[in-house]
Amino acid sequence: MQTTLLGILGLALLGTLHAQDSIPVQADFQQDKLTGRWYSIGLASNSNWFKEKRHLMKMCTTIISTTAEGNLEVTSTYPKGDQCVTRNSLYTKTEQPGRFSYTSPRWGSKHNIHVVETNYEEYALVATQISKSTGSSTMVLLYSRTKELSPKRLEMFTQFSREQGLTDDEILILPQTGEQGAQGW
């Protein structure tokens, strides 16, 4: 019985590791070029909070900076009701450039973040595998240096999201707002 349980746990872990490895990371990732202001243009997720809040989500402004330790400080600002809300997250670098980890202090969820593709000056495609006690989910974000992106980039985001197993009703091109933007999270 114990051997069977260990075998099942081992296969589950292997499956999780394989899923994380199947998400590509930007070749020759240059972290310093990722810093600065970004707008979230697209968001895709199969999480329950996304399904519940999708209709409220709007474009968000995100500032990325590098810490002295080489991690990323990610600050997102969005309107919530009639106020602006700012959320700070510290993405810890891993042994693989372009891959980061983050643990939500609020929810205890573990995030495995991959900078999938970027040209640093126009767009960045970021995929996150999220694990928590209630299960796991996938999130894909499309960032842009401006509030608009070409249809080619939007299609790339949609296609990549589908390749991650997300359906069309789990993929959203975020509507524009004022300077701060919103995502509802």
What does this protein look like?
A hairpin with a 5-residue loop joins β4 (83-93) and β5 (99-103). The protein is 23% helix and 39% strand. The chain has helices at residues 2-21, 31-34, 48-53, 151-163; strands spanning 36-45, 61-66, 72-80, 83-93, 99-103, 110-118, 123-132, 135-144, 171-173. It has 185 residues and is an alpha+beta fold. The protein is globular. It has one domain: Calycin beta-barrel core domain (Lipocalin, Beta Barrel), CATH 2.40.128.20. It comes from Vidua chalybeata. Belongs to the calycin superfamily. Lipocalin family. GO terms for molecular function: prostaglandin-D synthase activity; small molecule binding. Monomer.
Keywords summarizing the entry:
single chain, 185 residues, alpha+beta, Lipocalin, eight-stranded antiparallel barrel, 9 strands, disordered C terminus
Entry summary:
The protein has helices at residues 2-21, 31-34, 48-53, 151-163; strands at 36-45, 61-66, 72-80, 83-93, 99-103, 110-118, 123-132, 135-144, 171-173. With 185 residues, the protein is of the alpha+beta class.
Named at the architecture level, the CATH assignment is: Beta Barrel
What is the fold named in CATH at topology level?
Lipocalin
Work out the radius of gyration: 17 Å
> How many domains is the backbone divided into?
1
Helix-strand sequence = HHEHEEEEEEEHE
**Beta-strand percent range:** 35-45%
CATH superfamily: Calycin beta-barrel core domain
Largest sheet: 8 strands, antiparallel, barrel
Number of strands: 9
Give the helix proportion (percent range). Answer: 10-25%
Q: Report mean pLDDT, rounded to a whole number.
A: 85
The structure class reads: alpha+beta
* Tally of DSSP helical segments: 4
Gross morphology: globular
